[in-house]
Design goal:
The chain is about 90% helix and about 0% strand. By secondary structure, the protein is mainly alpha-helical.
Length: about 100
């Protein structure tokens, strides 16, 4: 489970770093090609927006993959674990009550 979390966070980190790199490259492109300020800003904004969209898509894919992998491995969710704990508590309480009645 820890390995899955590490892979997930590393992927998101790479996507974020990619956005910064895209912005740097876009700014350099604008500067090197002497593009007018307004057009340059539009280009940079579009490049950054595209990077952000890509990051979001990657994050969704990673989350889907992690969920699928966890399900295939047979792990249960926190909610399922809590439900089982509550059910065990109820059963213990019922067992104690039935012992007292005997």
């Amino acid at each position: 489970m820890a390995d899955l979390k590490t892979a997930f966070y590393a992927s998101v980190g790479l996507a974020l770093k990619g956005k910064q790199k895209v912005e740097q490259v876009a700014k350099k492109f604008v500067k090197d090609n002497k593009i007018e300020a307004i057009e340059g800003k539009k280009f940079i904004d579009k490049a950054v927006k595209h990077a952000e969209t890509t990051k979001n898509e990657i994050s969704k894919k990673i989350q889907e993959t992690v969920k699928t992998t966890i399900n295939r491995m047979g792990f249960i969710t926190h909610k399922e674990a809590n439900n089982l704990k509550n059910e065990i508590k109820k059963l213990k309480t019922q067992l104690q009550k039935s012992k007292k009645l005997k």
